[in-house]
Amino acid sequence: MRIVVDFDLCESNAVCMGIAPEIFEVRDDDFLYVLDENPPESMRAKMEESVQRCPKQAISIAED
Amino acid sequence: MTTTTVIVGASLAGINAARTLRLQGQLGPIVVVDADPERPYDRPPLSKQILTGEWEREKILLPAGKEDLNLDFRLGTRAKALDLSSRQIILEGPTGAVETSPFDSLVIASGASARRLPDTAGIAGVHVVRTLADSLALRAELDAGPSRVVVIGAGFIGAEVASSCRKRGLDVTLVEALPLPLERILGAEMGQVCAQVHIENGVDLRLGTSVLQIETSSVDGVERVRAVALSDGTVVEAEVVVVGIGVTVNTQWLEGSGIALDDGVVCDNTLLAAPGVVAAGDIARYPSERFGRTLRVEHWETAIAGGEAAARRLLAEASGETPAVFDPIPWFWSDQYDRKIQLAGRPMPTDECRIVHGTTAEFRFVALYGDGDRLTGVLGMNRPRHVVQLRALFDEGVTFSEACERAAAL
């Protein structure tokens, strides 16, 4: 599982950070940083929730 | 026996209820009804990227509406009446044909409609922004480059429309009946900051003023807005008027059905409105233990969470499981000019408001709201990290003063 963020869409609402702070971090520059682009399978539910709850539909999960 | 579910409303709450039912294994028919003829779409961009012209309609289609969930969509179809005893709903299709749709379980997610000014129906140039059709119609008029847009109501929709018009380089007058914008939601101190944001961005802001009359003239036989007469005695010439004065819930079809109504559908704390009937989204009024009163929340995230919770409530009822209590922390964002306003919680305008990060002068800050020792709200302007981190404090049960200390340490 690989986390893909479309940074043209992302507007740093930080919803994903609320769901999975170990993967997503919005810093003081107001930009989102993906801390682990290949999260473990145990994070799948949280990653799917992050995809669903992103107000900009900016997050997707790639299987490769 | 398979279960047939009817979902009234194909917007965020309805479509997420449908998705959850399917993903949780419901095999029977799921009928999704909406008066809007469009495929399910996301509403926040209607006052922003759609209006500015940055995005086209394909970009706002909801992912769940495009998934293969085997849903029976009845778009352009209006719910007319509910018969609870015989468990059927009366529908009116796009051609006016009336049909009866039976159900075992029902999700009420028919949402809300934009309020309009009285006696303005049919006047060209007067708009609301609630549906994709509304937004596209307004955009077409903005494309023509009107000399001035008057926005009536400085709530979140009005503020975002004003912002989008300014981005397009249009002159904007923003009219608000209250002394300060958003005062009922954010209190006077933060309302003042929001007013200043409009002024800094070149908006002609008229506060404490209401609309007396929309003045019109006849152009090629069409009655068209010409100016807006205000209660302070001024008259503002306008080629386009946008009305953003809130919404009314779409409960007409439920009147007399036995479903309890009180500015929304009255639910219990699990979103159940009657046996086998749940409500979600803008229309659901539920008791919040967290905030000590009933809430009807018009936020994007609450619509998703409510749709999911309502579906799970139906499944729990069918399986005999203990249903989960629905009491999320309300959260929303509003993008105005280059500022992002986010609020978590549900403060009262009279609550204490304390700045814990940044300053209002730089329009980049975090403020906490408290009622006595209880934390009631986290407000951020261009501070998304802090809002999401401090939102977690609601579930930690910290006092207002503790929350302020924790916030300062972030």
TrEMBL record, chain A:
InterPro entries recorded: Fe-S_cluster_ET (IPR051269)
Keyword Glycosyltransferase tagged: no
Keywords, ordered alphabetically: Electron transport, Iron, Iron-sulfur, Metal-binding, Transport
GO MF entries: iron-sulfur cluster binding; metal ion binding
Pfam family, one: Fer4_15
Gene3D superfamilies to which the protein is assigned, alphabetical: 3.30.70.20
Keyword set includes Iron: yes
Protein name listed in UniProt: Unannotated protein
Organism: freshwater metagenome
